[in-house]
Design goal:
TIM Barrel; 3-stranded mixed sheet; 16 strands
């Protein structure tokens, strides 16, 4: 659930939370934009946080647990939803190669004043959020950061940087709350992660260093469908293109899965043999020709990510996943080229993939996301589930 829950057409109320519960969901993942919360260093927007508190209260009343995601990196503007003041601390005027480029965001996350250990920007903010909700039983977990980017673009080679950073955060945050579930990830949502580096950071003599730490992965298999551009190659109108098209940078650069020994067959540059680091900016592998093939490859990726989690002594939380499919859609609140196909088919593919994952009854997951664009399951304008109907039931998603 995105931050647009407080006002406007995407605002969420208690009825929506009740509706989510009625469809069988048992938790919501609430994303916050750091720049909405800490508007100046050490100054937090209490009105905004009170709205967050209301949402958490509605979720609790509805019987839903809450996973809070305080640093949801993303957006199309500068600074990646990082506050301007924090960006300026880490990147003083004149030192930025590209102002606001997401690959520079890790430097902001890592920044700490060498003369004042208490001034650590991101960690200080995370401590504030954790302290606010440490006694709130409805908030069962805090996800430390969503989809961080490596400074030089090489996620595989720099896995140790993001793994060590989050291990340091966990060690500090345990002083604030010894028990709350803390969720960690690799670069690009764990799609490019050298599992041995997470094991080094989170294991000690074969045992986890901390309890209640979970590894999350986002796996969007970039496989089939129509590119944007005005031509619909979807001849049987099933939401997934029936032609294998030449992959483009947009379809492949940050999608697919490449996790310790597994290379997605989606458009995600493969360096060569299993175990070799990939080049995330090269697109040399053909897309899947069929929907079922894409789901099968998605399953392989999810199982590989589970291997990374288990190797680091953590359970896996699949925070986001699905099969990438371009299609021109109209969902009531969105009309245009959607990079993620129709919500109904994406949901069915998720259900089918989860059935096939080894130990699936032990893997937790969430569906991204509630109310926006080609992703959105729920039409906020009409208060319905985008005609999903029986597809919330396992039995409806066959094949």
């Amino acid at each position: 659930m995105r931050t647009d829950f407080t006002s406007g057409p995407d605002a969420v109320n208690s009825d929506v939370l009740d509706d989510i519960k009625s469809q069988g969901f048992n938790a919501i993942r609430v994303t916050l934009h750091w720049d909405d919360v800490e508007t100046a260093q050490g100054s937090y927007d209490e009105a905004f946080l009170n709205d967050v508190d209301d949402l958490i209260g509605w979720a609790d009343t509805a019987g839903l647990d809450v996973i809070i995601d305080p640093i949801h990196l993303g957006g199309t503007g500068t600074h990646f939803w990082i506050p301007q003041w924090a960006w300026d601390k880490a990147w003083p005027q004149g030192t930025q190669a590209a102002d606001g480029h997401p690959d520079d965001s890790t430097e902001v996350l890592m920044w700490q004043d060498p003369n004042n250990n208490d001034e650590a920007l991101a960690l200080t903010y995370l401590k504030f959020i954790l302290n606010r909700y440490k006694d709130n039983k409805a908030v069962v977990a805090m996800e430390l950061v969503n989809e961080p980017h490596p400074t030089d673009g090489n996620a595989w080679a720099n896995t140790d940087v993001i793994a060590d950073l989050q291990a340091d955060w966990v060690a500090e945050l345990r002083n604030t709350d010894p028990d709350k579930i803390l969720i960690v990830t690799g670069y690009f949502g764990g799609n490019l992660a050298d599992g041995s580096k997470f094991a080094d950071a989170f294991m000690n003599n074969g045992n986890p260093k901390w309890d209640n730490v979970v590894f999350t992965a986002h796996s969007y298999y970039s496989g089939i469908g129509d590119p944007p551009g005005g031509t619909d190659y979807d001849s049987n109108d099933d939401g997934y293109g029936d032609l294998t098209l030449t992959p483009t940078w947009r379809r492949g650069s940050k999608q697919g899965t490449r996790v310790e020994g597994y290379s997605s067959r989606g458009c995600y540059g493969i360096a060569g043999n299993v175990g070799e680091a990939p080049d995330p900016y090269v697109c040399s592998t053909p897309s899947s020709a069929t929907r079922s093939e894409a789901v099968a490859n998605l399953v392989e990726g999810l199982e590989a990510q589970d291997d990374v989690a288990q190797g680091a002594g953590m359970p896996l939380f699949i925070g986001e996943f699905g099969v990438h499919s371009y299609r021109y859609v109209s969902t009531g609140d969105y009309t245009g080229w959607a990079g993620w196909g129709n919500a109904d088919m994406m949901l069915c593919d998720q259900i089918k993939a989860l059935r096939q994952v080894n130990g699936s009854d032990e893997v937790s997951f969430s569906v991204w996301d509630l109310q926006t664009g080609g992703f959105g399951l729920y039409n906020m304008a009409t208060n319905n589930w985008n005609n999903l109907g029986d597809q919330f039931a396992d039995s409806a998603c066959t094949g």
